[in-house]
Amino acid sequence: MFFDMMRDPASLVLCSIALAGCSGLPGLLLRDGTLGQRLASVAALTSSLLALPSLLYLLLGGGEASFLLNWNLPFGPCEVALDPLSLFFLIPIFLIFPAGSLYALGYWPAASHSSQRSVTFFYGLLACAMALVVVSRNGALFVMAWEIMALSGYFLLVAEHREGEVRGAGTVYLVASHLGGAALLLLFASLFMITGSFGFPAAGSLAVGAGLAATLFWLALAGFGSKAGIMPLHLWLPSAHANAPSHVSAILSGVMLKIGVYGILRVISFFPERPLWWGGVLVVAGLASAVMGICVASAQKDIKRLLAYSSIENLGIISAGIGMFLLGEGTGNQRLAFLGLAGALFHVLNHVIFKPLLFFCAGSVMHAAGTRDLDRMGGLARRLPYTAFFTLCGAIAICGLPPFNGFASEMLLYLGFFGEARAGQPFLALGAPVLALVGGVAVISFVKLYGIAFLGEPRTAAAAKAHEATGTMLAPIALLACLALTGGLFPQLFLALVQPAIRGLAPDLARSMALPIAPVWFTLAGGSVICLAAGLFLFLQGKTKGRTATASTWGCGYLRPSPRIQYTGSSFGAFFSSLSGALIRTRITVDPVSGLAPAVAHFTYHPEETLLHRVVLPVLSVAGIACAFVRRLQHGEVQIYILYIFVTLMLLLLWVH
Q: TM segments (predicted)?
């Protein structure tokens, strides 16, 4: 029986999910933490080797499977199923989970971190819970897996709980997760009231009135949009991704955010007809998130916080693509619908690759330089040549430039916004310049990140003593960089995975539509850029060979110029930050300088998001005052509680009569 199950691809996928969830158990049971961590990495790699071929086989072969778990629970039997949409979103999980587990051997070793055992355990549990969310077809099981996912993310986030900033980020994450979970509870309770079952409605079978459909849509957008980081539901995301260990940040940004996208697409698939305004809401929210996210990112000097805000930008692009799909479907423009859905799903795959790549590279930089602050880095390209090269690859990809994969998926959205505006929807043309603005600001942001961190001279002694990452850290980075290049040069390989998911969501589109541009043009564009870059590099090498002279730097009157007079991340982004003053507030602290021989003075620059620090946090402070008043009622004395009950009963009697 076991070997029969092993020959069944769907059963292999379920076994891989279970193996991922159990991967961290040896570390909890064994006294040797290093051995437990290595066994967890072996289990993670094994689960991936079992799952990925099975997922590709089922997805490309059109296979589907469902399993009924009849547990006689109050909410009925639990169904788990593998359809094209689920198979597509399982691929990111089993790609990034083993990569992060291998990366952690060098980045978060058991010998250096007392929290390694819990991190390893919850890392596997998080991957298992995300996979269960994707395959669940029962609302109650879905919510349980969702809560396990949220709690696992919390325990991973607060791995360094001795730091106050980490504890604060964990609290914000936990509150946001439970508010989103409350919206999902209302969503699935409403579906139960409509259908009489916790089972998911079949695709296109949920025919309800316009008001009820709108309520379900807003609940889904609140619950899943908060997990996806769509503004203004993103408030937990920057601090969580910045303060978590880098391999945790990679799976949170690269995979968990996509679970929110999956939830939106799954709920949308329930309805036979989707109102046109749903698409408008997603397009506006997506483009606003993209613009505001990258503008705030451009002002950051924390390397991981910059990457976190750029995740908001990319999820905004994905949301805009889904909205484009709904607009095209509602107006009968199949070409627009196809480009929107194909671009969104393609960008899901691309973001899964280049964002963990950048978080892994950021972890290597932090591991070497001992800081997240760009202003304390510099000159790392000489000391971390491999990390510098792979970071450059990730930066080009996330900016949507050839020859990497970000260019290919964003090009589909450009074609949809600009090309289809001539087909009766001129307002869509506004999306093209917005995407161009987002791309331009992204280039500014990542030129700052790369230039300040890797070029110039080291600004601190720690940066001067930095060393390259270990092989277990570089291997997953190199793999993701190769995948990013493959997706840019041969996008048809990734689009082959996107096509079945489109067929599952919109069968008519998959049958009647094709890409308006041949994939070979992406190959030619990327190949041309590679040849041009190689030729320019060889030309410059030949020009400078044997002619390089060294001399002291002209110090503008300073006899001993210091590396600290170089441009910093703060000064590089100061002008653009001033243009984005409505979104970013800069908190500057300067020590006073006085006397003929003044003492050392310190200058600090800290960018803060206006929405969070001027709106949300003041509201939470008021709520905290109210909660503090309520806490005074809790004395722990039984006679006081009896008095409360007596007063409540008397008030109820008076109200009834």
A: 12-30, 42-60, 80-106, 118-135, 141-159, 171-194, 200-224, 244-265, 277-299, 306-327, 339-365, 386-407, 427-456, 477-498, 518-540, 611-632, 638-656
